[in-house]
Amino acid sequence: MDNKSNNVDSRLQNAMHGTPKLNPDEQRKYLGTFRERVALSMTIAQIKTRRFEKAFVNEMKKHSDYQLLINGNIDQSLIGPYMKAASQISLKFTIKTDSIYTTRDQDLALVLAAKESLNVTDIDVAHFETEVSSPEITHSTSLLDRLKNSFRN
Fold it and tell me: What are the boundaries of the region Disordered (predicted)?
């Protein structure tokens, strides 16, 4: 009989306060997912600079089976390119517009997450940007440049 009483109490609590969440602060920070599932993240300050767009999109292309979580409380012009890129590679994305997702510079604008635990150590897009934008030395010239040079001589 005591078990039945606990079950009724649990149902009443859930009805009044909603289903309890596991690590709600963590889920709020990572746009509704757990830190262990995050492969890549970008802050509001980083998305405003537009410096990391190429690095983030490259990672999205590598992991088209992941999901993109977007802070929908920021300006559409900032998140538009990422939504377009996600659509082009058939990457699922969710726009989070709840008031709990704030728009301070240190808050997250974008989160690329898996369905299961990844445990990636460094998820900041700045880490990936340096890998992507390392200078490549190329000595070849385009066909057009070679044609131009041949007429000059």
Answer: 1-26
